[in-house]
Structures are given as C-alpha cells and as structure tokens.
Amino acid sequence: MASDTVGNGSLVPFTGDSAAVYPLHHGLPLPISRLSISWSRGNTLRLSLFAGAAAKVVEVKVNSEDSEIPDAHWRRIAYGSVAPFALLQSQRSSISSLLKTPSPYHSDWWEHVLQYSKEIGTLLGGSKLTNSPIIEGPNILVKTDEMPTCLQAAWELIEIFYVDKQSQAWLPERLVDWLADYDSLFTSTHETIHGKLVDFQKELGNIQVIEDDPRYWDLLSSALSVGWLDVVVRMLRLHGSYQLDQLSNRELENGLVEAVAVLISKMPRLRPESDGKLGDCYKSKPDFIKAWEKWRSQITKLDHSPFWIQCDNQQTHEGLRNLLQIMLGNIESLCLATCYWIELYISHFLYIRPFTMGIESMYNLAEKCIQLKPQSSIHRLTGLMIGILEENTEVVLAECSREFGPWLVAHAIELLTTGSEQSEILLHEDRYNLGGISIVELHRLAYAQILSSHALTWQIAPIYLTSCMKQGMGLLENLLYRQSVQHNDVLLKNIEICRLYELDHISSNIMKIAGVYHWKHGHKGAGVFWLQQAQDRSCLDRIAQQLFDSVGKSISDESFKKWEGMIELLGSESNPAGGLEFLHKYRDFKKSLKKVSGGKSTDAARQAVGSLILVVSVIDQETKVLQMQPMTDSSSHSTFL
Fold first, then answer.
1. Hey, where are the domains in the chain?
2. I need a surface site. Which of 70, 190, 215, 479 has the fewest CB within 10 A?
3. Residue 254, strand partner residues
C-alpha cells in the first residue's frame, strides 16, 4: 500500500478484525513488482522487494508482545524470571516425589507458589521507591511519577484470586487497593477518576477558591466512591473555610467539613493492616461488622443534623451531603461519581456490600455493573478480570495469551493451578489433539521457541524445555545443534548447557563439529583441541597420519618447525603406531644435539645419545610394522626409513 502517512509502502493483512500496519522504509521506486516474505529470527519478517532492476531486503518486527515494555526491559524480565521458575519446578519435583503423586497438590503448596509470585511481581514492578518528596505539597493529590504496566496489573490480579490464601477473607479490600494502583492504566481507553484527578491537579495552583470550581465536589465524590480516603481528606483540607482569614466567618461551614473529613478518615476497613492509609482496620469479620454499624449510625446522625440548615454556602452544603450519601451506599450517587464499570464495581465492596462475598456473587455483581456502565471499548485487563470472575481457567489463559503474550502464560500457569485440583488436572493432562502433550507443556514450548529464536535469550530456553517431559528434550537437542561453533563464547556456553543437563553425547558431537569446522577453515590447533576434547580417535588418527606423511617426506628443520606445535598438541598416543612417537623422539634428539653443539655439559651429550637410541628403537618398531602389514603407498615411510 503506497501512502505518505506510513512511509513509502506498507504491509497490510487481508483478513482480521483490526488491521495492523507495519511501515516498510525501503526507498525503492514504486510500484513494487515482486515481494517475497519469510520468517527471520524472533518475531521478525524478512521481506525481499523488487522494483524493476532495483531490489532491497528489509526486516519488519511483528509486535506480538506488550508495546508498553521496551525490548531491553523484556529481556530483563525474561532473565529475571528464570531463577524463580527453576526453583519452583525443583520444589514441585521434590514434593511430588515425597507424596508419590504426579502433582504437588496439597495444603502447603500455595506458600511456595506465593513466594514465587512475589518474586516475579517484584521483577515486574521494579523499585517501590519514587521520586516524590518526603513532605508532599498540599496540591499533590495523586502521584504520577511511577506509571505501572498492564503486565504488572495482570500478574497481581491473578495472584489475588488464585494464590494468596491469607487474603481470601479480605479479597474485596485487595481489589480496592488493586484499582488504586492501576486505575491509571484504564485512562488510555476510558475516562477514569485517576485521569480526572491528574488533570485537576495540573490546574490546582491557578484556582483561587477551590470549592467554586465545579469539578471540585465531583472529584471529591469520585475519589470517595473508590475508597481513596487520603485523597478526599487532602482535598477537603483545601476548602476555603480552612483559610486563616475565613475561620471566624465560616466557622459552621468549617465544622461540617471537618466532621465529614473525620468520618471519612475513620471508615472501617476489613483488612489486616493499614499500610499507611486512612481508615480503621479490623482483621476479624465480627469486629468489622460491629464497627461498620456504629460508623453508619454516625453518618446517619450527621445527615439528620440541624446544622445543615444554618450552612450558608449552598455548594458546600450539597457537596458534603452527597459525600454522606456515597458513604451510606446510595446507588445513584455512586453511579454518578464513577466513570468506569470497574470503579462502580469497587464502590459496591466499600459501601453497599462491604462484607465478604463468594466468587459467584462477585461475578453477578460485575455483570450488573457492566449493565449500569456499558463499555464503549474493551480494555485488555477487562477480559482477564471477567474470565477470573467466571472461574474459567481456559478463558483466563486465552486472555493472557492474546493480550500479554507467551511469557505471562508460561509463568502464570503455576498460579492458576494453585489450590485447584480441577485446574491442575485440566492443564496437566495429556491431550490427543495437542500431539499427546498437556496445555502446560504446549505453552512452555511456545515460550521456549521464542527464546530460542533470539541470540540474546537462547541460553535460558533450556530451563523451560527441560520442564517439558514429552517433547522438550528433543527440541533442546535441536537448539543446541543449531548454535554456531565458530564463536568460542557461544561454543563454551553450549557445552556448559550440555554439562548441566548431562547431555554428554550431544556435547561430544558438538565438539566434533567444532573440531572439523576449525580444521577445515585453517585453524589447525583449535581443530585438534576440540577433537581431543570430543575424544574422536578416528579423526585424530587421520590427522596424525596426514601429519606424519607431510613431515616424513623431508626431515628437515624447516618442515619440522612448521608442524612442531601440532605434533606436540596431538601427543605420541595417536595412531599410526610409531609415527608421531618417532617425531617426538626426533624432536628431543635435536634439542639435545643443539645443547652439545653449544658447549653444554657432558650430561647433555649423554642425553643426546639416549635420544638417538630411542629414535633407532622407534625405527626398528616401525620397520617391523611395515614388514607385518603391507602398504599400498609407502613412499612416505620409505623416505623416512
């Protein structure tokens, strides 16, 4: 497709729900008469373009991974997740062998998986330290310096529902915290409370009387509806009645604002600890229910207070009363305050159904919220959340694969099977339509193939291939044989992998291939070295024969020096019987003779005589061999004799 907007040509698929356009910057004159497409390394297409007599080859990277994460960061994630994955597989094998079962499904397994999940989550989330000042300014409502990723949000969402058994009692509170951390991700496709707060925060310094701004009370209601108590209290402190010159004139108004702020800051929460957030935390459900009922009675009492009639500021009066209605669980107020169905969903856990509910009730509630807040477009995290609430493991896997790629599927499967024997059987049973392998093995093989196709990640692919019992080892052999032997670093890494997985026969074959390659390309010493490491007696004997024939044609100092290093490298053990042994003895004799001619001690002379006797002895042995074993071509031996 020729278009100025996408360069001088683009590749456009014929089918598909949404067309993906990949620019081709080839510089050839249009039209293109011929186009050839083939796969390159990784997720890259190699295109050969022909325009008349001109031609050019270009590569196009097909984006199949998360576009918000750069390639370098992806490689850091790939390498960082190897150690936790390998440790978990080792723990699985150990526990399975102790229990005499194919899977470690038992009461304590989730603790190992939780530790694994925390390590991966730390890897995805990076450092928790931010660049925000220790003492925040009054105009800082939300932090914008550390933007999360959808991959991080998806991983934490899976951990909340499938792994962390300790938090099952306060699952709704975990979801409240999850939305507080990742509501900004939905801003790209939907209007969200976080996005509205960020926009308001940018203009906050230019607003003279904050409560006169029409967005002020709307944002207060929105932030309160999703439980961002610290943001709400901070915004209430910006109210004009708190200014020093207004304290005496707006005393009643200030009292009402303060009363609402105190009620908000004392909101009961069913959670183990506060984590520095506002609200009174209760670990047990009975204590929480008692505190909740007392708190609601205080809100009702304030709502019926006569002081509202005496409040002169109508905006403050209506805004504060609306906040009370949100805390009392008024569904109309909550619908108006929230922007997205997930935000409305979270508000139900806070004000309408604050007690723990089952997963089935949570799914029904999600359907109700979707009806109240219809989706104009589906965010990539929405499908994953609905699949989790449906308790449909296959849908969750499909969403992870479609939206986040093979890395998440290969690593999140361990989370999906935690505590669920049904999911364990579903994902680990062998399937005829998959070639006799399980879903787990299928996704690990797919991820390993992606790692294998890149020069910077092929070294970690064996970790995943060896965890696949059916087809992993065969693909591992192919991977090792495919690596280049001309680069010494790659060759040494290849041999080290073979040693780690006890693949001695593959290691031997790779060293043979390296030896032959170096010998044919003129690297004689390197070739002999690798053949010796492979213990390839056949090739070494042929090389020794060629070497003896070459030197034996002329025992001159020049010819001998030319091959002396190679003779030393081969040693005297190689066949034919006495050939190389004679060359070694002859070398020792020449060295001793030089010492005698140089005026050395008589010991050197005796050593030279001894070396000469050894040379003659080797000649006698070689003569006997020739007499016992007729040769078709003995020109080199006759020259030597």
1. 4-61, 168-391, 536-640
2. 70
3. none
Instruction: Tell me how far apart the alpha carbons of residues 353 and 341 are, in angstroms, rounded to a whole number.
Output: 16
* C-beta separation of 465 from 471 below 8 A: no
Please state whether the peptide bond connecting residue 31 to the residue before it is cis, i.e. omega within 30 degrees of 0.
yes
Strand pairing partners for 218? Answer: none
Per-position b or e across 608-631, b if 16+ CB within 10 A of its CB: beebbebbeebbeebeeebeeeee
What is the CA 147 to chain-centroid distance, rounded? 18
Nearest in space to 487 (alpha carbons), one of 518, 459, 463: 518
Alpha carbon separation from 604 to 581, 590, 591 (Å, rounded)? 21, 11, 9
Sign of CA dihedral 318, 319, 325, 328: negative
Q: Is 283 helix (H, G, I), strand (E, B) or coil?
A: coil
pLDDT in tens, 456-492: 899 999 999 999 988 989 999 999 998 888 888 888 9
Write down the pLDDT at residue 262: 93
The burial of 395, by beta-carbon neighbours within 10 Å (0-12 exposed, 13-18 middle, 19 or more buried), is given as middle
The phi, psi pair for 557, rounded to 5°, reads: -60, -35
Contacts 24+ apart (CB under 8 A), 512-518: 512/536, 512/539, 513/485, 514/485, 515/539, 517/485, 517/486
* pTM for this model (two decimals): 0.77
Partners of 59 in beta bridges:
46
**Cα–Cα distance, 380 to 408 (Å, whole number):** 14
- The C-alpha angle with vertex 409 and arms to 405 and 415, in degrees rounded to 5, equals 150
Which residues on adjacent β-strands are paired with residue 54?
51
**Residue type at 85?**
F
Exposure string for 350-377, b = 16+ CB within 10 A, e = fewer: bbeebebeeeeebeebbeebbeebeeee
| Tokens (6 digits) for 580 | 């190389």
pLDDT band at 356 (very low <50, low <70, confident <90, very high): confident
The helix or strand, by DSSP H or E, that contains position 397, with its residue range, turns out to be helix 393-404
Radius of gyration of the CA atoms of the chain, in A: 38
Q: Sorting pLDDT into bands at 50, 70 and 90, what band is 19?
A: low
Torsions phi, psi for 186 (to 5 deg): -80, -10
Residue in 426, 431, 396 with CA at minimum distance from that of residue 412:
396
User: For residue 152, how many other CB atoms are within 10 A of its CB?
Assistant: 19
Tens-digit pLDDT profile for residues 245-274: 565 567 788 888 889 999 999 999 988 887
In whole angstroms, what is the distance from residue 503 CA to residue 510 CA? 11
